[in-house]
Amino acid sequence: MKTKMVRLGTYISQDTYKLLRDLTDIYGNQSNVLEQAIKLLYDISKYGSKVDRILVREKLINEFENVLISKRNFMHLLQGKKDSLYDEDVITAIVLSFVDENRDSKNFFPKVMESLRKIYVEGNRWFTNIELKTVEGEFKVTFYHNLDREFSDFASEYFKRFFSKMDYKIVEEQKLNKLFILKISDF
């Protein structure tokens, strides 16, 4: 079904027009920009501070490459207690704050993975990509990076514990120099 279009005639400031032109490069045309802006403003007025929190979280993830290095983690690093880094639960809380799905929803795990991509690929750049495939009712998650096997060993253990805390079962694990793969299922 096609949406009926309505012609809109109005004036805007030159500064706003420059912003509109910049956003047109991203969204394709001025109509798409206006639709997105109006929907966003509507959500802000409807949900209020929730949108503000989302914008703050987005900025946090995109601005700080060291989002995982809490004071406690930093002390563990200085003291050479690598195993203690696995117990820090900061990321679980951040990921769950991004996911607006019920744990029983079929979209829950893909939303978790979307959050991990935001944090670890876009934000702190631990990985060059995180890929999710569903194979025979299980999730196959591939983490690509440009470091060495030692990083694969550490990060693989970190994410095994992460998914276990979220009540998922690691069915299979494969570690290589520039990537590692976790096959994950629901309990």
What does this structure look like?
By secondary structure, the protein is α+β, with helices and mostly antiparallel strands. It folds into two domains: 14-47; 62-186, Muramoyl-pentapeptide Carboxypeptidase, domain 2. It contains seven helices and four strands. Strands 1-2-4-3 form a four-stranded antiparallel sheet, covered by helices on one side. Helix 1 (14-27) crosses helix 2 (30-47) and helix 5 (90-98) packs across helix 6 (108-123). It starts with 13 loop residues before the first helix and ends with a strand. The model has no long low-confidence stretch (mean pLDDT 82).
Q: Keywords, please?
A:
4-stranded antiparallel β-sheet, Muramoyl-pentapeptide Carboxypeptidase, domain 2, about 190 residues, alpha+beta
